[in-house]
Amino acid sequence: TGKKGSDSKIVVLGKAGVGKSALVVRFLTRRFIWEYDPTLECTYKHHTTIDEESVNMEILDTAGQEWTIQREGHVRWADGFVLVYAISDRQSFEEISNIKQNLDDIKKTNSMCVLVGNKTDLCHERKVSYMEGQNVATDMSCAFYETSASEGGEEISEFFHELHREIKRRKQV
Ligand code: GDP
Ligand code: MG
Questions:
Q1: Which reaction does it catalyse (predicted)?
Q2: Whether the complex's predicted ipTM surpasses the cut of 0.95
Q3: Is 6 in the pocket of ligand 1 (CB under 6 A)?
Q4: Which helix (H) or strand (E) holds 82?
Q5: Does the beta carbon of 42 lie inside 6 Å of ligand 1?
Q6: What DSSP string describes 17-47?
Q7: What is the CA radius of gyration of the chain?
Q8: Ligand 1 atom nearest 34 alpha carbon
Q9: What DSSP state is assigned to residue 95?
Q10: How far from 17 is each of 7, 88, 92, 143, CA to CA, in Å?
């Protein structure tokens, strides 16, 4: 038999407008589309290879902010989370710790996350420094990335892949 594959279920969370859909679409298609339906909540199935292993990812791109029963179900379903803010939107950054707290409450454990500061192309509108992002990530004991969905750097694949690796590690313990 060949090398067994692994699966991960990922939920993308963050304030409306931070670029969750743009990041997910960029990761899946390597393209940037300027406008998405802001109310669209959608799960993508993505087959890829990470560290020479066959991987099936399911990625839920959330919309809206309410912590409904449905969202709690999604949180329980997920193995890990991409928490997104925009470096040009201070409030989106301040919401991250609330989101993380809600996740930990629902999961009843330290939830597996990566923190992503999006829209680095808007450097002239920066409201959150790199260090502030890094410090929050350290507090949450998760990896930190800054990126731009519109410019589409390698870090977009990196953080999805890194989250997958962390999920896999935790499942093996
Ligand atoms: P969501 O509500 O979090 O899913 O955000 P969207 O992906 O719909 O993006 C919201 C708006 O921000 C759209 O107008 C996008 O074109 C824009 N946007 C997303 N990512 C970036 C980025 O990296 N840089 C810039 N300048 N705009 C972005
Ligand atoms: Mg969206």
A1: GTP + H2O = GDP + phosphate + H(+)
A2: yes
A3: no
A4: strand 80-86
A5: no
A6: TSSHHHHHHHHHHS---S---TT--EEEEEE
A7: 15
A8: 16
A9: T
A10: 28, 11, 9, 22
Amino acid found at 38:
P
37 lines ligand 1 (CB under 6 A): no
CA angle 29/88/111 to nearest 5° reads 65
User: How wide is the angle at C-alpha 101 spanned by C-alphas 98 and 102, nearest 5°?
Assistant: 90
Environment of ion ligand 2 (residues, CB < 5 A): 20-21
Do residues 28 and 60 make contact, with C-beta atoms less than 8 angstroms apart? no
Concatenated DSSP letters of 97-137: HHHHHHHHHHHTS---EEEEEE-TT-GGG--S-HHHHHHHH
Q: pLDDT tens digit string along 107-149?
A: 999 999 999 999 999 999 999 999 999 999 999 999 999 999 9
